[in-house]
Design a protein that fits this description.
Largest sheet: none
Number of domains: 1
Mean pLDDT: 95
Number of helices: 5
Strand content: under 5%
Radius of gyration: 16 Å
Order of helices and strands: HHHHH
Low-confidence stretches: none
Helix content: over 70%
């Protein structure tokens, strides 16, 4: 199976940037921080301690999940952006989302926090599925 590695890496970077936007003040940063019980001070302290390492790890995990989605799209065939988005939604909702929700039960996360975190994953896989289906 031949994958377009430029598409995989490019789509992963786009997905990583989507995460940056999702957890930025433009969208859900304040709600997420409140639900996680983070303050501006704790976030600044975390940034000084080693945020670069966390970002690098996050990018690596995004690349790996993008690779997995790319393999599925290649194997199953998604002829257009809509079909790619559908496959991404399937993965995001029924595989990743439900597993995250299961873990959230035991972590006793609030419904609001679950919606923010799982919502990000679903949107991420939908967007990436659409991109990967057309960027061959």
């Amino acid at each position: 199976m031949q994958l377009n590695w430029l598409a995989v890496i490019g789509t992963a970077v786009i997905g990583f940037l989507l995460g940056w936007l999702w957890y930025s003040p433009v969208l859900f940063a304040k709600s997420w921080m409140a639900e996680m019980k983070f303050t501006e001070e704790t976030m600044k302290a975390a940034m000084q301690k080693g945020m670069a390492k966390l970002f690098a790890q996050g990018l690596l995990y995004t690349v790996l999940s993008t690779l997995g989605l790319a393999v599925l799209i290649k194997a199953l065939g998604s002829p257009d952006a809509c079909k790619g988005a559908e496959l991404g939604a399937f993965v995001g909702v029924l595989l990743v989302g439900t597993r995250m929700l299961n873990g959230s039960l035991w972590e006793q996360r609030t419904v609001k926090l679950q919606a923010i975190v799982v919502g990000h994953e679903i949107v991420l896989f939908v967007v990436q599925g659409a991109i990967l289906a057309v960027w061959r």
